[in-house]
Automatic annotation (TrEMBL):
Gene Ontology cellular component list: external side of plasma membrane
One Gene Ontology molecular-function label: signaling receptor activity
Protein name: FOLR1 protein
Positions of the Folate receptor-like domain: 1-156
Family, per entry: Belongs to the folate receptor family.
Keywords: Disulfide bond, Signal
Length: 229
């Protein structure tokens, strides 16, 4: 599930391999905390992990985090409408006991377990809408976007690498938007040559380098410890 980033990734092959395991050293996180998670649902969480660990295009959404277990995080990444809806559709019948998977687990055994008194329920009850799943499961790391794949305005959680990485243009668009005025940005089509020219040369050169050099909080085995609380 991490293959789209194989030509330009912020993760190692070992990280990619670990992302597919039920009990990985990445976060020591147990996907099966309410029984076995269906494969069609787990696929989306693996893709989510690959995006989080491997994508070089999340720079515009990296924020400083004042936390004992990480120094930075991603916040409000606009996830494409279809990605959220397919994620929710494939997981709606799976079971979980918590809305926010970032914190509040019982770690007494070394793996995350449901806190005392929390009942396992279908995703569709815990997350009534696709927006709820995308935005709440990782405490607003993602934002449900009304934009669709190919719009140049939202991040795809997975894509066909043979067709190129659509998230490159999206990252450039939002990087420029943070540096310039919204009015300037709205007049630029992100997929056009004009969009590339509109981004200052220094940004184009330094953005990939910055993404590699930005300090990434290391958890067990080199991960940022996404679910470590």
């Amino acid at each position: 599930q991490c293959s789209p980033w194989k030509d330009n990734a912020c993760c190692t092959a070992n990280t990619s391999s670990e992302a597919h395991k039920d009990h990985s050293y990445l976060y020591n996180f147990n996907w099966n905390h309410c029984g076995v998670m269906p494969p069609k649902c787990k696929r989306h969480f693996i893709q989510d992990t690959c995006l989080y660990e491997c994508s070089p295009n999340l720079g515009p959404w990296i924020e400083q985090a004042d936390s004992s277990w990480r120094r930075e995080r991603i916040l409000h990444v606009p996830l494409c409408k279809e990605d959220c809806e397919e994620w929710w559709e494939d997981c709606k019948d799976a079971l979980t006991c918590k809305e926010n998977w970032h914190k509040g687990w019982n770690w007494a055994t070394g793996l995350n377990r449901c806190p005392w008194g929390y009942m396992c329920r279908p995703f569709s009850k815990v997350f009534p809408r696709p927006k709820d799943l995308c935005e709440k499961v990782w405490s607003n790391s993602f934002k449900y976007s009304p934009e669709r794949r190919g719009s140049g305005r939202c991040i795809q959680m997975w894509f066909d690498p043979a067709q190129g990485n659509p998230n490159v243009a999206v990252a450039k668009y939002y990087a420029w938007r943070k540096r310039g005025s919204p009015a300037q940005v709205e007049n630029v089509a992100p997929e056009s040559d004009q969009a590339v020219r509109a981004v200052p040369w220094a940004v184009l050169v330094l953005l990939p380098l910055a993404l590699v050099l930005l300090p990434r909080e290391l958890g067990a085995g080199g991960s940022r410890g996404r679910g470590s609380l």
